[in-house]
Structure formats: structure tokens, C-alpha cells
Amino acid sequence: xxxxxxxxxxxxxxxxxxxxxxxxxxxxxxxxxxxxxxxxxxxxxxxxxxxxxxxxxxxxxxxxxxxxxxxxxxxxxxxxxxxxxxxxxxxxxxxxxxxxxxxxxxxxxxxxxxxxxxxxxxxxxxxxxxxxxxxxxxxxxxxxxxxxxxxxxxxxxxxxxxxxxxxxxxxxxxxxxxxxxxxxxxxxxxxxxxxxxxxxxxxxxxxxxxxxxxxxxxxxxxxxxxxxxxxxxxxxxxxxxxxxxxxxxxxxxxx
Amino acid sequence: xxxxxxxxxxxxxxxxxxxxxxxxxxxxxxxxxxxxxxxxxxxxxxxxxxxxxxxxxxxxxxxxx
Lengths: 255, 65
Fold this sequence. Notes:
The structure holds two protein chains of two kinds.
Chain A: E1 2-3, E2 6-7, E3 12-15, H1 22-32, E4 36-43, H2 49-60, E5 63-66, H3 74-88, E6 92-95, H4 108-120, E7 124-129, H5 133-141, E8 148-149, H6 163-172, E9 179-181, H7 187-195, E10 200-203, H8 205-208, H9 213-232
Parallel strand pairs in A: 3-4, 3-10, 4-5, 6-7, 7-8, 9-10
Antiparallel strand pairs in A: 1-2
Helix pairs in contact in A: 1-2, 1-9, 3-4, 4-5, 7-9
Chain B: E1 2-5, E2 8-11, H1 17-24, E3 32-35, E4 38-40, E5 55-63
Parallel strand pairs in B: 1-5
Antiparallel strand pairs in B: 1-2, 3-4, 3-5
């Protein structure tokens, strides 16, 4: 798939937080086959732990997508984006402007405003948004060439709360890359998102908090691939009643 | 002068953001800075004067979702 003119061979984007250890994070990245991982900016401790994490990621060779997680205002998000661009050396930014502390739902007004400011400043913005079509249009007008609608609240693992909304989004933005970001809990959720025609899935907790994160990373990769191929293969329509699959013609009379 | 670094009160002689960071031991190349909520680029730190009460943020790469 292509985003902002760059080709990504894997449709699974992976978060790097909450893993049991740096070694398991590295193995999970490898097992997932991902080519894009999300990272953040946090206060530097006295021991300089940030540089160690950054070294680990660079060794994996995957591209990074810094986020503005935790920002509740446009100003915070814009400043964080600038700080991330300098440290990570990329103008890609996963824009999060959080609207509510409990639901972590996006503040779509702030997200649109920040997207406009950052796009004008040369950033390639990946906005965390809802499935609202009007907001998607505003984000596109603000310069976003990809949209990242939530599947369910961040970290909830509830899967796709509104699949019809995502389907409508796909129909409304046929040529814009759409990435389901947040809410994925199981491989079937990831496959379901891809079957709806999403271009990619971004998840973190589902892998990091699995009992075996490395195996789950592999499972998610296969689910994303299966869902993607399933969508391309144009699934059959559902029927209300049974229809025999074995031919009726030539059926013996054995009564 | 007294300034706040990542919300902690610190005493620095300054006079610039660059010298204060050096003084406080922030020598990693993988840090980014903001002064009173505004981004200060690496190249601009030496020319950025500090005043008592300034709020400095020093951020580094971290795990994220």
C-alpha cells in the first residue's frame, strides 16, 4: 500500500508500548512483519533511557510513526509533533488530540485544527479520528492523505464497535487510505476490519498484553493478510435460508 | 536562576538553554526541547536565553501506541 508516496508492504502497523521486555518487543516486531511502528515522546529521565529505546528501534530497521498521545489541546499536539520530528527525523506524525480522559475519544475539532497547522508546516499527518464522514472530509481538506478511524476506544480490545460506520467511510472515501486505529483485541477483529476494505490496521495492546505477544503478533499478521485477501476476493452475499452446496441433480431416491 | 525542568525546580546559571541543558547533564542527542510550551529546535538552543521561572521540557523517544 502507498501512504504519502511511500510504499508499505505490511498492512499491520504496530504500537511499541506495554511489552513485557524490550527483547519481546523486538521479537514481536519481527514476528508481525510490520514496517511501521508507533512511538511517543516522554520526559527524559536522568538515566537517558530514551536513547536506548531509540537505538533498539533503529536496529529493527522499521519506519517509525511518532504520536502525540496524551495531548488534549492543539497547542500541545503541535509542539509535541515538532519535538518528535526533530528527534525521530521523520515528518510523519500520528495526530491525537484527545477529547475526553475516560473514553480517549478524539477531539475532532482540535484534530482538524492541528492537522491544518501541521500539514502547512510540512508534516504528513495520520489523524486518529472517528468514523464521522464530515470530520473525515474536514481532515482531508486540512491536508490529510490518510484517515485513522477508531475501531473501539483505545486499549479496550472490544473490536469494531461500528462496522457499518466503517463500511460507509470506505464507500465515501474510496481512494483515501483508511487505517483502523484502536480497539482491536483479537485476530478476528483485525480480519473483520480488513474485510470491510480498510487498508491497514494499527494496534498495540492486543499484542503487547497477550499472554504470548510474539505469537499474537504473528496471528495478527496472518489475520490482516487473510482479511485483506478476503475483501479482494469479493465475498459471497449472505442468505437468510440454507442453500445446498452439494448438487441436487442426480440425487438418489432411496426411500 | 531557578527554572522548572520537566516540572522539577532546578538551579542553573545559564545563560542559554544549551548551557543549562549541559549543566543539568542532558547530553543525549536524542532529546527535544520546549520552552514555556514552545518548541525550541536543537540549533536554536544556544541562542535561546533563559529567564527565572522559565518552564523547560526535555523529551526523549519512548514506547507509544
